[in-house]
């Protein structure tokens, strides 16, 4: 069983869907299960990373966690992040954390803080460090250029 946090977000929803398609048992955490709209057969449970204790009842039988950390301040990574990681470490053998490439160069960032907490917890871990997502590009100033086929970078004189 894999527990997925951020299960109704852009990345989490894809993780849930692809695991389900491969026949892997999935438990999806969301603050509002009634509006989750996840694939049939996915176990959807109520939980909130801001309330770490809300996760504990859903960790029975879970081997791994896909962790999307929604808070962007290092202080929130330190707490409740530390409490979340402690709870996970008591129940699971692996945490897959959606981090960011910036964690490598910004040791005070929330990404790096969460990575350190997970490393220090004693569980096996995998850190995914993407540099960006196409879905995010569509919400930026580049969206018009992307959809028009125009260049992404302005060149002098163009």
What does the model show?
The chain has seven helices and six strands. The chain has a six-stranded parallel beta sheet, with helices on both faces. Helix 3 runs parallel beside helix 5. The N and C termini lie far apart (53 Å). The mean pLDDT is 87.
The profile of the biggest β sheet is:
6 strands, parallel
Give the ordered list of helices and strands: EHEEEHHEHHEHH
Query: What is the overall number of helices?
Result: 7
- Strand residues, percent: 15-25%
> Ranges with pLDDT <50 over ≥5 residues?
none
Shape: globular
Please give the order of strands in the largest beta sheet. 3-2-1-4-5-6
Helix content: 25-40%
